[in-house]
Amino acid sequence: MKPSPELLRGLPDRFEHAVIAFVDADGYPLSVATGFRVDERGVVVLDAVAGDEVQPPEGEEVNVVFSHIRPQPGVGYDERRYVSLWGELRRSNGHLELASRREQHWDEEEMTFFELSERGVPQARRYFEQVSSETGRDVRPRLSLGWLFLRTTRLPFLSATFVPVLLGIAVAALHDSFSWWLAAITLVAAACVHLALNVANDIFDTLSGADEANVNPTQFSGGSRVILYGLVRLRSMVLLSLGLYAVGIGIGIALAATRGWSLLWVGVAGALISVFYTAPPLRLVHRGLGEIAVGLGFGPIMTLGAYFVLAREYALEPLLVSLPVGILIALILYVNEVPDRPGDAAAGKRTLPVRLSKEGVIRGYELAVAVTFALIAVFAVSGLIVRPAIIALAALVLALPVRRALRESYENPYALMPAMGKNIQLHLVTGLLLVAGYVTAIIADAVSDDPPSFLS
Description:
The protein has 456 residues and is an alpha+beta fold. The chain has three domains: 5-110, Electron Transport, Fmn-binding Protein, Chain A (Pnp Oxidase, Chain A, Roll), CATH 2.30.110; 113-140, no CATH class; 145-455, Farnesyl Diphosphate Synthase. The protein has helices spanning 5-9, 11-14, 113-119, 121-135, 145-153, 159-174, 180-208, 210-213, 234-259, 263-276, 290-311, 316-336, 341-346, 352-355, 358-382, 399-408, 413-447, and strands spanning 18-23, 29-34, 36-38, 44-47, 61-72, 76-92, 95-107. A seven-stranded antiparallel sheet has the order 2-1-5-6-7-4-3.
């Protein structure tokens, strides 16, 4: 692309010097720094280079680079920007004039480094394909097996499974229905289904074009992107997802056969939601139903399922205590979808943040948080769940920076990223405090035949 007059005229205000890169007569690449100015014609005028041995050639294409970066000790860098011009040099009045034919530039204020990197992925993939063709062997980017598995499955997000399953186990234990090995097997089964869902989500987001359209992934959103980056083949991802589903569902069927076939009701519901979250024909997340699906799957379904495995029946209490964590896990998805809006919209993925305005998204978050903690207070005070669970209200403070960041950084994915992490903490801390409330009630019941009402 030919450089615009505005780009050229702005060079002196943004850069202090230029670097001329060229190939010398012996075929070696050389570069030399020099001063410059831009004249009234919009032509880049470079100062003459001293010495006879490093003179840039006339009439041949050279690359002239203008760059700036400011070190931030202990932090890194900011104010990163560059302009790269290609063209021929000609001597005039003791100076070198550049006839610019094409340009490439980047300014951190206009585009984040992360987005710049993502926009370069297609070119990087073409490079690997070219090298593979030239060498006759498969050349791909690689990660160590441990890091690759961690990224592919998004293992850290298993907190979304641990919280509702532990809640179901805690409620069952309070009512004298507990087994270590059943609790452990239940946790393994639920984790396998969750990891299978994560992998399947990446598969269908790749096939739908959502991953490629999203150039602003963050630490918490945008998926693992291992297929897009060429780290894992699509076929391998399919086999991994099927294998994890097979283990999780297989354990579920075994538990249903030994603990009661009524367990299949929540098992089948959970499996269907997991599969059709992104898979056609339902593609729930594409229809704005992702939050509801996630809230049900990682709330009532997992908590009731864990409770049933131990107690061999369903009950109202595990359902009620699962509602707050179900809403909060839905809010994790809800906030994580905010940076993905442009890519999701381009791929026809009509999530709630795609459908709603900024103000609508913020109001929705505020309402959901208010409902969550109101439910905890009402259930605990009324005794529908154990009263010590009211300590979970202390986690409400974690929602405040998330709300503030949504207002201040809605359009800036990387400024929003810390709040996305805080939103995950909101779910985790609330869930663990609810579990702690049940543990308190279990201990009180164990040490006293008639524990005080505020501990039961």
